[in-house]
Amino acid sequence: MLAEALRRDGYDVLATREPGGSAGAEEIRALVLEGDPDRWSAETETLLFTAARRDHLERTIEPALAAGKIVICDRFADSTRMYQGLSRSDLGCDLRGIVDQLHATMIKREPDLTILIDMDPDEGLKRALQRQGHEERFEDFGPDLQRRMRAGFLALADEFPDRFRVIDGGRAIDIVAADVLDVVRHDLTTRA
């Protein structure tokens, strides 16, 4: 919805996603989002997501930015910062430092703006499961993980206030979309 609205505003926009967004990254996506929740260790997931992000950056994001496009990416490094550390924190893994180190070495780019759509974790999990897709490996970790993820993402928003904007996602989708568009339009005009 955001990409369509910005295109109507006259912007050249690329909408992409992670993991995925390039041929190689889409192959890795299938590996990490499908199957048993315990299929990979948190360390292996971190390496897989970093490899997918690097391919996506090289083949999709950087060429689009070089061409003057606005890139809208559904998820990026903050998701790895949260999921690979928090999804296994009960097993004693805290990979945030490793994720940040890999990101600084291999990716070297943060978003100009990060929109965090915040909502009640139980409602978010319910909505995700209603999609009845085949990429629900992280949803299969259950509601406790969703609660920890919410707290973790809100902490990231506090850590990086210059680029994070938090939007209440518990409302109707058209209201949420309008708020997101307002935030992005304001950001684009202040950067111009």
Descriptive notes:
With 192 residues, the chain is mostly helical. 58% of the residues lie in helices and 10% in strands. The protein is built from eight helices and four strands; from the N terminus they run αβααβααβααβα. It has helices at residues 2-8, 23-33, 42-66, 77-86, 96-107, 121-130, 143-159, 173-191, and strands spanning 13-17, 70-74, 114-118, 164-168. The strands form two sheets. The protein has a two-stranded parallel sheet. Helix 2 runs antiparallel to helix 3, helix 3 (42-66) runs antiparallel to helix 4 and helix 4 (77-86) packs across helix 7. The longest helix has 25 residues, at 42-66. The chain is globular.
Question: Short description, anyone?
Answer:
The protein has helices spanning 2-8, 23-33, 42-66, 77-86, 96-107, 121-130, 143-159, 173-191, and strands at residues 13-17, 70-74, 114-118, 164-168. It has 192 residues and is mostly helical. The chain starts with a helix and ends with a helix.
Essential attributes:
two-stranded parallel sheet, mainly alpha, 192 residues, 8 helices, globular
- The rounded Rg comes to 17 Å
Shape: globular
Low-confidence stretches: none
Order of helices and strands: HEHHEHHEHHEH
Helix content: 55-70%
Largest sheet at a glance?
2 strands, parallel
Report the mean per-residue pLDDT as an integer: 88
Number of strands: 4
Percentage of β-strand residues = 5-15%
Main sheet strand line-up: 1-2
Helix-strand makeup class: mainly alpha
Determine the N-to-C terminus distance: 22 Å
Secondary structure tally, helices: 8
